[in-house]
Write a structure and sequence with these properties.
This protein is an alpha/beta fold. The chain has 2 domains: 2-249 and 456-479, Aldehyde Dehydrogenase, Chain A, domain 1, CATH 3.40.605.10; 254-445, 3-Layer(aba) Sandwich (Aldehyde Dehydrogenase, Chain A, domain 2). 53% of the residues are buried. The chain has helices at 40-59, 62-78, 80-91, 95-119, 152-165, 180-192, 206-215, 228-238, 263-275, 292-307, 327-342, 379-382, 398-406, 421-430, 463-469; strands at 2-3, 6-8, 11-13, 20-25, 30-36, 124-127, 131-139, 142-146, 169-173, 199-201, 221-225, 244-248, 253-257, 285-291, 346-349, 353-354, 365-366, 369-372, 389-395, 410-411, 413-417, 435-438, 453-454, 457-458, 471-479. It binds NADPH dihydro-nicotinamide-adenine-dinucleotide phosphate (NDP). NADPH dihydro-nicotinamide-adenine-dinucleotide phosphate (NDP) is lined by residues 146-150, 155, 173, 175-177, 205-207, 210-211, 214, 225-227, 230, 233-234, 248-251, 282, 384, 386, 412, 452, 457.
C-alpha cells in the first residue's frame, strides 16, 4: 500500500515515531494509502529546516524566487490529469470538477503570487519639507500554514504561495483526510529545484501535528483555513503568543433571489452554488431566500434540476455529485437532515444515503437534498452543515431578507439575484459578508481581498493583503 511521506528539508521522510494513519478513498469506503501520524518531533525538524533556509530564501532576488514558484505552477499544469485523479480519489469529488477547478486554481495561485511579488511595492509618505517616511517590509520568518480537506490542493496553495512569494519559509499541514495532492506537490517542488527547507510539509492529525505548528515559538505567523471551532482553538493558543493570525473559517451563506432576477440563470447557478463539490465548499449558498411572488416557481424548477444531478462514481463523466469526504462527515450530514425534519422541515427531494453498485458500493454518498418549511432561526438554518443540503424560504421585503441573511454568527459570502442595479448595490452594502456575488457565484479575481466577517474569519487573504500578511512592516522616518 502506498505510503505518503513528509517533506522536510528537501527530502521525503517518514514520521519520527514510525506511525502512520489509514487514508481512505471515500467513494469506495476503503483504505488505499497511509499517511504519517506526525507529532511535535516532526514539526520541530521541519521548523529547524525552515529556519536554516530562511535567510537565503528571503535574500534571493525576487525574480529568481518567482521563477522557481512559476516552474512549480508549470509542473502542476503538466500533471493536471494525475493531480485531478488523486484529488478525486482522496476527497470524493468528481474528477471532472478537480480537473476544471481545483487543480487549475492551484496552479494559478502559485503563478499569481509568484508574479505579484515582483510588482509588490511599499508605501512612502513625504511629510512636507521635513521628512520622508517609508515602509520597509521584510518577510516575517517561518510561516505556519494549515489547510482543510474540501479543496485540498487549491487551499493548500492559497496559503503557501503568498508566504513563499513574500520570502518566508513554510511549515504546512494539509488535512490528514486528504493528503495525497500535497504529497505529489512536494515531489513537484523537488523537481522544480525549490531549495531544501523552503517548504516543509508535515502530515498528520490536527490536534497533534497541527497544534504543534500553532504552538511552536519560532513560527510567528499562522495562516489557517478550516472550521470556526478549530479556528477558535487556534486563536486561543496563538493570540497569547502574539502571533500574527489569519483565520478563514466556516460559513452559512445566504443566496437571495429577487422576483425580477434572470430566472434561468438564477436557478441554474443556485443549483451549482448549493451542490458543487457535494456542498463541501465554504462559499456554497446553503440558505436560499426567494421573493414570495417567485417562490413557488423557483422551488419547482430548483427541485426539478436537483433531481437531475447524477450522484455516482466520481470517475464517471456524467457524475455531478461524488462522495462525501468521510463516513463521519456523511453521518453528520445525515443527522442534520434528520434534525431538519424534527424542526418541521419538509424534504422535497433527497434526504438519504445513496448505495451504488460495484466499485463504489461502500462509498459515502448522500442525495442532494432540498428542504422547505423551516424558519430562519432553527438550528438547520444557523449551523454549518457543509454537505449537499439546502433550505429554501420565501420573503416579502428587502429589510426582512437582509435580516435573515445577516441573522447567523457567520459572514463569509452571499449571493444576490436581481436585475435592479439600485437594489443590488443597496442590499450588497447591508450584507455582513466578506464577499457578495451579484448575479454570479464563485467568480474570483485574486487581486481582491478575501475573507469572512463575524465568526467566518479574521484577516483578509488575496492580493496585496496576503503578501503583506507574511511581512513585517517597519516605518523608517528620514529627516530631510
Ligand atoms: P477543520 O477545522 O476540522 O480542519 C482544518 C485543518 O486544521 C485540518 O488540517 C485539521 O487537521 C487542522 N486542525 C484541526 N485541529 C487543529 C488544531 N487544534 N491545531 C491546528 N490544526 C488543527 O476543518 P475541516 O478540514 O473540517 O474543513 C471544513 C471547514 O473549513 C468548514 O467549516 C469550512 O467552512 C471551512 N472552510 C473555510 C474556507 C474559507 O475560506 N473561509 C474555505 C474552505 C473551508 P485534521 O484534518 O487532521 O483534523
Amino acid at each position: 500500500m502506498q505510503k505518503i511521506l513528509n517533506y522536510i528539508n528537501g527530502e521525503l521522510v517518514g514520521p519520527a515515531s514510525g506511525k502512520f494513519l489509514d487514508n481512505y478513498n471515500p467513494a469506495e469506503g476503503k483504505v488505499y494509502s497511509q499517511v504519517p501520524d506526525s507529532d511535535a518531533a516532526d514539526v520541530n525538524s521541519a521548523v529547524d529546516a525552515a529556519q536554516q533556509a530562511f535567510e537565503a530564501w528571503a535574500a534571493m532576488p525576487v525574480e529568481k524566487r518567482s521563477a522557481i514558484l512559476q516552474k512549480i505552477a508549470d509542473l502542476v499544469d503538466r500533471d493536471l490529469d494525475k493531480l485531478a485523479l488523486a484529488e478525486s480519489v482522496d476527497q470524493g469529488k468528481p474528477v471532472k470538477l478537480a480537473k476544471a477547478v481545483d487543480i487549475p486554481r492551484a496552479s494559478s495561485n502559485m503563478r499569481f503570487f509568484a508574479t505579484g511579488a515582483i510588482h509588490f511595492a511599499s508605501e512612502a509618505h513625504v511629510t512636507g519639507t521635513e521628512a520622508v517616511n517609508y515602509t520597509l517590509r521584510t518577510p516575517i520568518g517561518v510561516a505556519g500554514c494549515i489547510s482543510p480537506w474540501n479543496l485540498p490542493l487549491y487551499l493548500f496553495t492559497w496559503k503557501i504561495a503568498p508566504a513563499l512569494a513574500a520570502g518566508c519559509t513554510v511549515v504546512a499541514k494539509p488535512s490528514e483526510l486528504t493528503p495525497m495532492t500535497a504529497f505529489l506537490f512536494s515531489q513537484l517542488c523537488m523537481e522544480a529545484g525549490l531549495p531544501k527547507g523552503v517548504l516543509n510539509i508535515v502530515h498528520g492529525l490536527g490536534p497533534r501535528a497541527g497544534q504543534a505548528i500553532i504552538e511552536h515559538p519560532e513560527i510567528p505567523a499562522i495562516s489557517f483555513t478550516g472550521g470556526t471551532v478549530t479556528g477558535r482553538k487556534i486563536a486561543a493558543t496563538a493570540a497569547p503568543m502574539f502571533k500574527k493570525l489569519s483565520l478563514e473559517l466556516g460559513g452559512k451563506n445566504p443566496n437571495i433571489v429577487f422576483a425580477d432576477c434572470d430566472f434561468e440563470q438564477a436557478v441554474r447557478t443556485s443549483v451549482q452554488s448549493s451542490f458543487s463539490n457535494q456542498g463541501e465548499i465554504c462559499l456554497c449558498g446553503s440558505r436560499i431566500f426567494v421573493e414570495r411572488s417567485l417562490y413557488e416557481r423557483f422551488v419547482h424548477e430548483f427541485v426539478n434540476m436537483t433531481k437531475q444531478l447524477v450522484v455516482g462514481d466520481p470517475q464517471e463523466e456524467k457524475t455531478r455529485i461524488g462522495a462525501l469526504v468521510s463516513e463521519a462527515h456523511m453521518n453528520k450530514v445525515l443527522s442534520y437532515i434528520a434534525l431538519a425534519q424534527q424542526e418541521g422541515g419538509k424534504v422535497l427531494t433527497g434526504g438519504k444515503r445513496v448505495i451504488l453498485q460495484g466499485r463504489c458500493a461502500n462509498g459515502y454518498f448522500v442525495e442532494p437534498t432540498v428542504i422547505t418549511g423551516l424558519n430562519a432561526t432553527c438550528s438547520t438554518n444557523q449551523e454549518e452543515i457543509f454537505g449537499p443540503v439546502v433550505t429554501i424560504m420565501p420573503f416579502d421585503t428587502e429589510d426582512e431578507v437582509i435580516g435573515y441573511a445577516n441573522g447567523t454568527p457567520y459572514g463569509l459570502s452571499a449571493t444576490l439575484w436581481t436585475e435592479n442595479l439600485k437594489c443590488a448595490h443597496r442590499v450588497a452594502a447591508q450584507l455582513k459578508s466578506g464577499i457578495i456575488w451579484v448575479n454570479c457565484w464563485l467568480f474570483r479575481d485574486l487581486r481582491t481581498p478575501f475573507g469572512g466577517m463575524k465568526q467566518s474569519g479574521v484577516g483578509r487573504e488575496g492580493g496585496w493583503e496576503a503578501l503583506r500578511f507574511f511581512t513585517e512592516a517597519k516605518n523608517v522616518c528620514v529627516k530631510l
